[in-house]
Each structure stands twice: as structure tokens, then as C-alpha cells.
Design a protein that fits this description.
The longest helix is centred in the N-terminal third of the chain and has 23 residues. Helix 2 runs antiparallel to helix 5 and helix 6 runs parallel beside helix 7. The protein has 423 residues and is α/β, with parallel strands linked by helices. The chain is built from 15 helices and 16 strands.
Length: 423
């Protein structure tokens, strides 16, 4: 590993050069060869599970000694079952259609030119993520299938696990006659390496940070290449006056409580004033039964008087915890305005039977995903049928929502003529 600043820069530049060279080879690799690598890697994860689990045990032991929380240790820990899920994910990606070379659109011009819009790889992806080492497998599988080389920068707490996983992925790349440098691990824990790599736009085409808001903001501020990102997930559930209240309660509890620490968990509840009286007491009871702390507006506290007063900060908060803000709105338009003011563009949900309200909400709410009569927790690449995802984007250019194979490619125009010249 590099021991000085100059050595670190040289190390990072070497990673970038090798990734760029690998990406050129990968861009023209046959789909069958990439699929062979995916299935071979899945088999190798099972065959070499002990190797990975021993490395992971070292990481877990270090995390516990360093005082990481139980939740953080759980995200870090690999088990045979979690490795099996990762292997299944690779097989699912292999079963997806190859996005490289697909014709997205075509037309024939009056002068006889045949114009085709064709999917192509992005090139080199710099993926910065925290904790969960199984993400290493997911990200590598998606990128290679999309024809992209990937530089993996996992958290220092997972270094041994990620090293073992990368070793397996590179071994199977060689066996599949694909460039091993298509999957590289940034093996230094020096945080300055991230800064160096974010400046290497001559080698890296896209940076993807996946972790806390602080990490994502740092990457967005320092990167000289495009960044695929979302900063926060302040997701709302709006219960319309036309809602089936049993359905609304079920969706709300799932959206808030099924996994409260993830970006697509609900953080805010909006309730139409016409159904506040029958709905809020039952919703509050259901949430309290799951240990949720309630922070409500004055109108909502008429029906749930023991809730804490909500503040402006509460309405804008991504709690990632068993806490929810509650606001009673006069009508659908006020709900849309509240989401526009406080939302983060991640995931919003409406519970309603009135199709006029549903159409207005889905058209007016500006978010990467809008759920109708379904939990916000479904904004996920696997749940959307993408096979897997490398992250969720709240940006609007190139990719939005769960980002899978299609979002890891771009396109170019290929034009066929028979001697045409422009007059």
C-alpha cells in the first residue's frame, strides 16, 4: 500500500489507467461471456464461502472492538444465507437482457440514412459505499454486465471481506477470458484516496456514492465527473379523504416500520382533514405498537394529544429511526405543496380510491417514484424487476429512481448510409 502522498496519487492514477484499459476490452465483450462470468462467480461464492466468511469474521471482530453499534455490525456481517442471496443476485443479472448493443430507437430519413440509437457502456464507474460487503458483489455484477469497469471503495470496516470477494470476482474474470482489472478494489483506507480518484475524470466516467448524506455531499462537491446520487429520503405517505382506512393503516405501518433505517422508509404522514378524526387515532395506535415516536401538527394533536409538537425541522427530517412527523392538510393541493416544500424527491405515496386525486397526485408530485396504494418500501431495484440496483438517484438527467443495468449504460447514434452527402 502507498506510504506517502505522492505514492498515493500514483496508486490512484494506476487504478484509473487500468480500469480505463479494462473498460475498452469489456465494451466489446460478448454477452455470453459476461453471463458466464456471472454464473461462474455465483458458483465460486458458494465454493469459497469459508474463505469469505473467515475474512468477514475478522472485520466483525474489529467492528465490535471499535464500538460499532449492533445495527452497524449486522450490516457488516456475512452469513452463508447472505452469500447465497448475493450469488442468486448474480444469476438474476445473468438472466437479464444485455443492455449493450440494444437498439433504443431507429428511423429512416427522407435521404435514405438509417439512424439507430444504440446502448453502449458508460466506461469506468467509481463506486464509494459503506458497511455491507454484499454490495460489492451486486455492484460488480451489474457493472460488468453493463460493460463497465468498476473501482470499488468500501468502508474500512469491511476491508478484509471486500478483499476476499474481489479476489473471487477477479479469479472468475480471468477464467472467463475477461479483463481482471474490470473489478478493482481501492485497497487503501486513506480517505485522501477518494479525493484523488474524484479528480481523475480522464479515467472515470461516473461516481456513485452510497451511504450517509455526509459522504454523498463530499463526493458531489469534489467530483470532476458526473455523480449519480440522492442526498436524503424524506418520504411521505398521503392519506386522501377517499382512502380505504384499513389499507392506509397497513401501508403506513409497513412504510415506516418494516425497515426504518433505509432511504425509502416513510418519514412523514399527511392526512386529509376530512378523515383525520377516524384515521389518526387508529394510525397512532398502530405506530405506537411498533415503538414509533409521533411528532404532530396542532390539528393532528387534537386527535392524538400525547404526540409531541412537530417543528419545521421535523417536516424536513430524514429520521432513519422509529420517528414520524404528522400533518393534517386541508386538501390534496396542500398535500402536494407540503411534499414540494419538504420532500427530497425520493419516494412519495398516496392512498386513495378517487382516480381524479390519484391522477393529480402522480402528475404533480416531483419524485423519483410515486406509489399508488402501495408502500414506499417498494422503491427498490429488485422490487421493480431490475434484478438488482447500484443505488437510487433523485437526479433528473440520465438516470432517476432505482439504477440497474439500463442506467449503467448510455447510448450513441450509429448512422448507415450509401454515399449520402449534405448539400
Amino acid at each position: 500500500m502507498p506510504t506517502a502522498a505522492a505514492d498515493l496519487l500514483t496508486y490512484c492514477e494506476d487504478l484509473g489507467r487500468r480500469a480505463r484499459a479494462a473498460s475498452r476490452l469489456l465494451a466489446t465483450a460478448p454477452g455470453a461471456r459476461k453471463n458466464h462470468w456471472l454464473t461462474a462467480s455465483a458458483a465460486a461464492l458458494a465454493k469459497r464461502a469459508d474463505e469469505v466468511l473467515q475474512a468477514n469474521a475478522r472485520d466483525v471482530a474489529g467492528a465490535e472492538e471499535n464500538g460499532l453499534s449492533a445495527a452497524q455490525v449486522d450490516r457488516l456481517r456475512l452469513t452463508p444465507a447472505r452469500l447465497a442471496v448475493a450469488a442468486d443476485g448474480l444469476r438474476e443479472v445473468a438472466a437479464l437482457a444485455d443492455p449493450v448493443g440494444r437498439v433504443l430507437d431507429s428511423n429512416v430519413r427522407p435521404n435514405g440514412l438509417h439512424v439507430h440509437k444504440v446502448g453502449v457502456p458508460l466506461g469506468v464507474i467509481f463506486f464509494i459505499y459503506e458497511s455491507r460487503p454484499n454490495v460489492t458483489v451486486d455492484a460488480a455484477g451489474l457493472c460488468v454486465k453493463a460493460g463497465d469497469a468498476i473501482l470499488l471503495r468500501g468502508g474500512k470496516e469491511a476491508l478484509h471481506s471486500n478483499t476476499a470477494l474481489q479476489r473471487i470476482l477477479q479469479d472468475t474474470l480471468r477464467e472467463s477470458d475477461l479483463p481482471a482489472d474490470a473489478v478493482q478494489l481501492v485497497a487503501t483506507t486513506d480517505r485522501a484516496a477518494v479525493g484523488h480518484l474524484l479528480r481523475l475524470n480522464q479515467y472515470i466516467d461516473l461516481a456513485i456514492p452510497r451511504g450517509g448524506e455526509g459522504l454523498i455531499r463530499r463526493v458531489a462537491e469534489e467530483a470532476r465527473m458526473p455523480v449519480l446520487k440522492h442526498f436524503a429520503g424524506n418520504c411521505h405517505v398521503y392519506v386522501d379523504r377517499s382512502a380505504d382506512l384499513d389499507m392506509a393503516e397497513r401501508i403506513l405501518v409497513n412504510a415506516k416500520c418494516q425497515r426504518p433505517g433505509v432511504c425509502n422508509a416513510a418519514e412523514s404522514l399527511l392526512v386529509h382533514q376530512d378523515i383525520a378524526k377516524p384515521f389518526l387515532p387508529r394510525a397512532a395506535a398502530a405506530l405506537r405498537a411498533k415503538g414509533v415516536e409521533l411528532r404532530a401538527c396542532p390539528e393532528a394533536r387534537r386527535f392524538i394529544p400525547d404526540a409531541k409538537p412537530a417543528t419545521e425541522e421535523d417536516y424536513a427530517a430524514e429520521y432513519l429511526d422509529l420517528i414520524i412527523s404528522i400533518n393534517v392538510v386541508r386538501d390534496l393541493e396542500e398535500a402536494i405543496e407540503h411534499i414540494s416544500r419538504y420532500g427530497s424527491g425520493h419516494t412519495e405515496a398516496i392512498v386513495a380510491t378517487d382516480w381524479n386525486a390519484i391522477r393529480r397526485f402522480t402528475a404533480a408530485v416531483d419524485s423519483s417514484a410515486v406509489m399508488v396504494n402501495a408502500s414506499t418500501r417498494f422503491n427498490d431495484g429488485y422490487e421493480f424487476g431490475l434484478g438488482a440496483e447500484i443505488g437510487i438517484s433523485t437526479d433528473k438527467i440520465h438516470a432517476r429512481g432505482p439504477c440497474g443495468l439500463q442506467e449503467l449504460t448510455s447510448y450513441k447514434y450509429i448512422v448507415y448510409g450509401d454515399g449520402q452527402v449534405r448539400g
